[in-house]
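Thread: Newbie trying to understand structure tokens

Hi all, I'm a second-year student working on a class project, and my supervisor (Dr. K.) asked me to get a predicted structure for one chain before our next meeting. I've only ever worked with sequences, so writing a 3D structure as a token string is new to me. If someone could post the tokens and maybe explain what I'm looking at, I'd be very grateful. Here's the chain:
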Amino acid sequence: MFWCDKLVEAQSGPQTINDSKTPSGRAHIGALRGPLIHDAIFRTLQSKGVPVRFLFGVDDYDPVDEIPYGQAEVFEKYLGAPSRPACLLHLQEGRVL
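---
Reply by user tm_fold:
Sure, no problem. This is what the structure looks like when written as tokens:
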């Protein structure tokens, strides 16, 4: 039995699968893990006739988790700082606005 089949057999009623990605940091192959797993679950639920919806969002309201290449002097003080989410940091000519 496929792992998704085993997972969804215990589900009943409408289901919502919610996934998201932060644009902070670099894109890498590991970032596909969540969407691929959630897509497999979504498709399995669909094939069993379970009402399901798959939501995917991009949320930039998180702390900076990686410094852009060549910008360490500008961004280092904001690394992991919850008071300055990535969406509030705008880089222009090597400085944060």
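A couple of things are worth pointing out once you decode it. Helices lie at 3-8, 33-47, 72-75. The first strand starts at residue 15 and ends at 21. Feel free to ask follow-ups in this thread.
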